[in-house]
Amino acid sequence: MVVVEVISFDVWNTILDTKKMFALLSVELAKALQIELEKSSRVEKAVHKVYDRCKQRRRLGEINGFDIVVESQTLLAQELGASHEVVMSTIEKAFSTVDPQHLVYSDAISALELLYKLGFRMGIIGNTVFWSSRYTRELLERLGVARFFEIMVFSDATRINKPDRRIFLLFAKQMGVDPGSVAHVGDSVVEDVGGALSAGMKAIHIDRGRKSMLVLKDLGLALISELHQIIDVLEGL
């Protein structure tokens, strides 16, 4: 039996809340475009529409992790009737003003601290859409959790998107371990679970709406509802 030595994490919707970031970005875009805040829901709908469209292309391998940042910004600008420059500058403003404590899930910091104290090596495997990984890295730094991660592998730097197994294999190679000794934690069944399992890793799917934990040892898969449960399922993987 291969023992889990390394735990990799997705960031958005696993450690940080994407919906809250989208809501903040939508308010800032509404201000930049001089749209009444009462009507900012139209902006937020546009953000989600473009996000879903780009995410589908990402999953199908139709666009790499670097180009998707520019394309998603361009599509959002077109959807809102704005310039690409306005969208870029608004993203910059949103990230420079947001309090990362507003975005982090309540279970994230304490769970990471516990795993770190227990001696698990940890890292990040993340995709990008509207913003480059620089903004995500800076948020993790400001939050005080970047120190827990030995490496951060993002799709805009590698030009490889999850669920492509190559980004998971690259992570394992950079950590100097066999993929089988890595457990990847993420919220997406396709991008996180599917990608990790295809690379020979173990997978832990977090769904905060779940009522109970479940370990499917034969598949190398665990289902959890909060990050504190990671330690409870590792032995069963």
From TrEMBL:
Pfam families: Hydrolase. Its cofactor is Mg(2+). GO terms for molecular function: metal ion binding; phosphatase activity. Signal peptide: none annotated. Belongs to the HAD-like hydrolase superfamily. PANTHER family: GLYCERALDEHYDE 3-PHOSPHATE PHOSPHATASE, N-ACYLNEURAMINATE-9-PHOSPHATASE. This is HAD family hydrolase. It comes from Ignisphaera aggregans.
